[in-house]
Specification:
251 residues; mainly alpha; 11 helices; flat
Length: 251
């Protein structure tokens, strides 16, 4: 059995927290201008830092669209579902985060204001943490009783969570998301088989607890299935044609 690098795992979790903090910084204008530039920084260094931070934030949303919905509420990613555990996705993450880290390190930190230094340090910590997290084989352990894509999307289908169900577009966007679950599940199966070959497997107790959650998702009665719940809660304002189309599509 391979040894688990818990230091990398802790850094991975911490990195997700920092991502939320970075989102808050961007939303509240983390780079206020003054007469001498961006909050006292040398203008060219501050401007480059701001550009890198914006690009990093956008890349994080693109890589993890479920987090974009859950943590930021960005409607641009409402229909997106990336297979984060896929080898190609992980390789792209490594390339992008590595480039971001190199660009930040190329800046002269001493020329930044105190607030920009915080942004600099957050980027170094978060991008570096993401790269370290990719060394941990969590992609081979996709089944978990606390966090899994199928269970999360089923919960969101209740209409009482972060996925909106107010408009026709909202309904179409959720449908696009759950249509991608099959490919996500196939990748999970492939990864678990690789994990079995290499001795990287989930704890038995965790798997047994997770199985009940997955079994609940395959309710054969369509109208009792978790993913059909949005149809049972369609707004009365939807036209008869839209209701019929959506009902057929969800079935």
């Amino acid at each position: 059995m391979n040894k688990i690098n818990f230091a990398s795992l802790r850094q991975f979790v911490s990195g997700l927290t920092v991502f939320v903090l970075l989102a808050g910084s961007l939303a509240t204008n983390a780079w206020p201008r003054s007469e001498t530039g961006y909050g006292g920084s040398r203008p060219d260094e501050a401007a480059r830092l701001a550009q890198i931070a914006e690009e990093y934030f956008e890349q994080r949303l693109r890589f993890f669209p479920l987090s974009a919905t859950e943590d930021v509420g960005d409607p641009r990613f409402e229909s997106a579902l990336e297979i984060e555990i896929a080898p190609t996705h992980r390789a792209e993450q490594a390339a992008v985060f590595g480039r971001i880290l190199s660009r930040v390190r190329a800046l002269d930190r001493s020329q930044l204001s105190k607030s920009d230094m915080v942004t600099y340090d957050v980027l170094i910590y978060d991008a570096g943490g993401r790269l370290d997290a990719l060394k941990f084989p969590h992609h081979l352990l996709p089944v978990h009783h606390m966090e899994s894509v199928p269970v999360k999307l089923a919960q969101w289908g209740s209409g009482d969570s972060v996925q909106p169900f107010k408009t026709i577009a909202n309904y179409d966007n959720y449908l696009k998301r759950i249509e991608k679950l099959s490919a996500c599940s196939e990748q999970a199966i492939t990864n678990m088989r690789e994990g079995m070959r290499n001795g990287v497997v989930q704890n038995r107790a965790i798997v047994e607890r997770a199985l009940g959650q997955y079994e609940a998702l395959i309710e054969p009665n369509v109208e009792k299935n978790s993913f059909f719940v949005p149809i049972l809660k369609m707004p009365a304002s939807f036209s008869a044609d839209d209701k019929a189309r959506l009902t057929t599509a969800y079935r």
